[in-house]
Design brief:
Length: 256
């Protein structure tokens, strides 16, 4: 069990931003990554659909022998992690928008959250944001269309800028001092985001927190890898183009 891989899934390549944090913090762990890009994006799907897809992704990773599952997708976590934990006997780590750290650090009392419709409308997101609603105002924007472009291998350019500006300019105007990237795809656009917002606005996401939590859970369950043999395997069920692009063609992407 200890030498089994960590399983990570997302609706596409966004989870690679989480994989990178995990790989940096846990260089002695093997990883299997699964991109359900045939069904991407998850952002405008119903809770039931997202749950069904998440179940399939977890089954895929468990069949590959994973010892722990990282749900590297805010939309899948906020809509399905409760059911996943109730149905599978394996530890789960999820990711949700980093409202708590932003709410603790804000001075203006205004934070912006960029996420998918599926995340913003979820019960879990509603609960977390109302926990902080007394001292913080949250400006939420659904960056509709960004995930689709990223999955087509478009990481910058006019269309990306247009969607980002539509979401970010009103937040800047309202004087947010923290911007939460509530979708694992968005850190891929960090350079364009930074070119739009003033550098007084701090950008936060939960990528490193997820890696730290993964480390804690491996330790708690005493399932840290002790083998020197490492493997990184990548799978997708749609076109491997965008996964190859984000991985700079350094790994083989297996199509299932
Ligand atoms: N990476 C997913 C997330 O964090 C993208 C969601 C989607 O497929 O729309 O929410």
């Amino acid at each position: 069990m200890n030498n089994s891989p960590i399983g990570i899934f997302d609706s596409g390549i966004g989870g690679i931003t989480i994989l990178n944090s995990i790989k940096n913090l846990l260089p002695n762990e093997s990883i299997i990554y699964y991109s359900d890009n045939l069904n991407s994006p998850y952002g405008n799907k119903s809770k039931i659909e997202i749950e069904k897809l998440s179940f399939k992704n977890v089954e895929f990773l468990i069949n590959k022998g994973c010892k722990i599952i990282v749900v590297a997708c805010n939309t899948a976590t906020t809509n399905s992690i409760k059911k996943l934990r109730a149905n599978f006997n394996i530890p789960f780590i999820g990711i949700e928008p980093a409202i708590k750290p932003a709410a603790m650090k804000t001075k203006s009392g205004l934070i912006g959250v960029l996420a998918t419709e599926g995340t913003l409308s979820s019960l879990l997101f509603g609960k977390t944001s109302s926990n902080h609603s007394l001292n913080v105002n949250i400006i939420e924007k659904n960056a509709e269309g960004l995930v689709e472009l990223i999955e087509k291998g478009i990481f910058h350019g006019e269309k990306i800028e247009e969607i980002l500006k539509k979401c970010l300019l009103p937040m800047i105007e309202q004087k947010i001092d923290h911007l939460v990237l509530g979708c694992t795809h968005y850190p891929i656009l960090i350079n364009t985001i930074k070119s739009i917002i003033p550098n007084t606005i701090k950008i936060i996401d939960n990528g490193e927190a997820v890696a730290l939590q993964t480390k804690r859970i491996l330790k708690k369950n005493q399932i840290e890898n002790s083998s020197l043999e490492l493997k990184y395997l990548f799978y997708c069920n749609g076109s491997p183009m965008s996964l190859n692009k984000i991985l700079n063609n350094k790994f083989t992407v297996n199509k299932v």
